Structures are given as C-alpha cells and as structure tokens.
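Figure caption, in words: inputs first, then the predicted bound structure.
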Amino acid sequence: MTDFVVVGGGVGGLVAARRLVLAGRSVTLLEASERLGGTVTSHTVGGIVLDAGAESFATRGGTVVALAKSLGLGDDVVEPLAEGAWLQPAEGAAFRLPENSLLGIPSWPLASDVIAAIGFRSAFRAYVESLIPAPYGAKSVTLGELVRRRMGSDVVDRLVNPIVRGVHSVDADELELDAAAPGLRKALLRVGYLAGAVADLRQTSARAGSAVAGIRGGVHRLVDNLGSDLSRFGVDVRLGVSAASVEADSVTTADGERIDGTVIVAAPGLLGGGTAPGRRVVLATLVVDEPRLDAAPRGTGVLVADGAPGIRARALTHATAKWRWLAEAAEGKHVLRLSYDADAADDVDLAEIARADASALLGVPLDPSSTVDFARVAWYRPGRERYTPNGMLVVGETIAGTGIASIVAQSEALAGSLVDDSNG
Ligand SMILES: Cc1cc2nc3c(=O)[nH]c(=O)nc-3n(C[C@H](O)[C@H](O)[C@H](O)COP(=O)(O)OP(=O)(O)OC[C@H]3O[C@@H](n4cnc5c(N)ncnc54)[C@H](O)[C@@H]3O)c2cc1C
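Bound structure (flavin-adenine dinucleotide present):
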C-alpha cells in the first residue's frame, strides 16, 4: 500500500508526485509510455537538441520560475529576445502584432499599430468601450464573448483568434475567459473597461519582467530534473505501466495489477468525463542554413489567421530569433517550428509544405538545398474534461487548461492541499 498513486508522468503528475514525496508521503507514479515528461520532451534535429513540444512558459504568478529554481535551473531561466511576433491575416500582407496588447486585445485601440492591423473604423469601435466604463461583459464565459461584447467582432476575428488558435488550438469563443487570461475579469471589474484592464494587467506583468520565459537548453530540462528528483526522493516510478481503470483509492493496471492508495489522475483523457473532442497537432521543425534569416524578418515568428491563402501552417516560430541560447547552439543555422492541424499535415510531404510555408511567411524564399534537417512530431491532445467523477483528484491539462504555468500552479496547489489537510 502506497499513500498516493499518481497516474501519468507529464508535468502535472511529476509536480504532484514531487510535492507529495517532499512532504514525506510514499508515492507510486504510473506512466504508460517509456519516458517521463508527456508533452514536454526533446528531440535532436540537425545536431541540435530542441524542445519537441512546449518551448516556453508563462511567468505569471512566478510558479514555474520558483519550480525551476527549486530544481537547480534558476540561473538558466531566460527571457525571449524582444523582437515581437507578426500576424499573417487572411487578406493582405503580414504585420507586426500590436505592441501593447494581451492575447491580441489592445490596451490603446487607437494606437497606430492597431489601426494598421484592423483599420480605423474597427479600431474606433474598440475604443468606444472606454467611453462607457461599466462591468458590461464581465459575466462572459469565454474570452471571445467578452472581447466581442466590449470591442466588437473585428478585434476577435482579426487579432485575438489568430493568437489564441496559435497557443491553444481553439477559437476564442471556445476558450474559458479565466483559463485564457487569468485576472482579466477582475481587472475589468476594477477598471471598468477592457482596454484599461489590459493596460492594468500589462503593467503588473511588466513589473514582473517578460510574460513568457524559457530554459537555456530547452524547457524539457524541467521534466528531466523533476524525474531525477523523483528517483532521488524514492518515488516508485513505473514506466510502461498503463492504468486501465481508476477509483478514488485504487488503480487497476492494463496487466490487471491492483495498486491501492489515494489516486491522483494526471493523464488527460483517462476519465473521459463528458470531454470536448480531442485534437491532433503536428509540429514540423526545419533547421535551415539561410543567412537572409539572420535579420529575423518576422521577429520571433508569425501567427496565421484562418483562410490565409496558400498557407497550411497555423503558426511559425523563428526559434533562433526568439532564444539567444538556441542561436548560439545553432551556430549560424536557423530553427523554424511550424504547427499544423493534423488534417492539414496528413498525407503530404510535410518537409516540402513546411519549407513552402516558411518561405511565404518569412518573405524569404528557402531553397530546398538550404534545409539541413527536418523533423515531424505528432501530438494528440484529448479534450478538456467538463466534469470529473465525484471524489476523483485530477491534475494537469485536463482541468487546469493548456500550458505549463497553469498546470504547475494547479498541481502544486492540489498536492499541497492534500498534505496540508492530512497534516492538520
Ligand atoms: C506542440 C505543442 C507545443 C506546446 N507548447 C507549449 C508552450 O510553449 N508553453 C506551454 O506552457 N505549453 C505548451 N504546450 C502545452 C503543454 O505542453 C501541455 O499543456 C502540458 O505539457 C500538459 O501536461 P500534462 O501533464 O497535463 O499532460 P501530458 O503532457 O499529456 O502528460 C500526461 C502523461 O500521462 C500519460 N498517460 C496517459 N494515459 C495514461 C494511462 N492510462 N496510464 C498511465 N499514464 C498515462 C501520458 O503518456 C503522458 O506522459 C504545448 C503543447 C503541444 C502539443
């Protein structure tokens, strides 16, 4: 009998297991695959070790930075280079994303970069909400609903949606407001209008430094070090063991073994409790040798609006223009990460498609001979649980939403409450 059985060794499960073992509890962790880390992992492309999934994390709340410090990675937390990202709209040329914005919501709708992006009429429509400060829209459930009500559809469709799809692979109308932009609802209630709420939140995060950060050498180092800590602290980590069914106080593995203990589910999709449909995402990584990219023609990358003609990618990250450590490791070559919805990446020569998309998005024709290496990684992300069966403890993306920052915070909080409760 173990005190806790954690099912799933992604970042959610690893953080929970570490918190529990550090509080003196016995922990068994079951991981279906042969490695820890889940969606946070690495691969080697063109001789460079790169993140094959998540490559950065939100700094809000300071939770991930605190975790990195406790894992001995404090000196390796790095901010991205300040080049900014671009947007490829459905029609017309790419433009630099408005500087003072949050998930595409402008803090000053009449700024010249907002007008350049959506036109004066739509920018003025967005500005008007500041003339009528009121909590109107604050009860909105989704991010899209709130922004549409306050600032109009053009801000949602042309600025917010391309960004939200790039990060979360869903539309702003499908994304819960509090998960997408923690603190925005409260700021709106306090300030009275959305642009002001965005300015308020931006000011807070500016005081705290960049909104996102990475780890020198790659974010996968977080899960590598979490895994090492679990071994060091005596967690019984079982790789290649899949949970077939879970109860609140026991797990039955696919091999029929029953393991008793308080169960924490950290495996998205395992409970299947009224989930939204899952989605497949494909990440294409190109390492290219093309000196014309040294000037970072589209800053740190390009988000792609739905319907951009001839482009299948959802987003492109110019990773060597985003991370100094990576530019140094690449020794003059460039690393481009393009994300695709699976249906756009199935049954095609993805290396060729990615090269064509990168050429169009970066405005620099990439000759086939410039490609040093290419890698394709397919991910399946189960839908978010709408509810969890009574009494089940759940951590990770299933319940915290997409992103390392939300997951680490939720997992730490839940595991902490369990040991605090039983201590009291
Ligand atoms: C391409 C891509 C890029 C991303 N980029 C970023 C980014 O830059 N920044 C960011 O913050 N987030 C990013 N994300 C999202 C982030 O990686 C995830 O939200 C997070 O890693 C999910 O962690 P998790 O522990 O909840 O789940 P997972 O990482 O999915 O881990 C769950 C684990 O459970 C295991 N498992 C499943 N079923 C069972 C079972 N029955 N029994 C035992 N084990 C089981 C799985 O094998 C897996 O190891 C990205 C995601 C993708 C796909």
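The CA atoms of residues 161 and 302 lie 13 Å apart.
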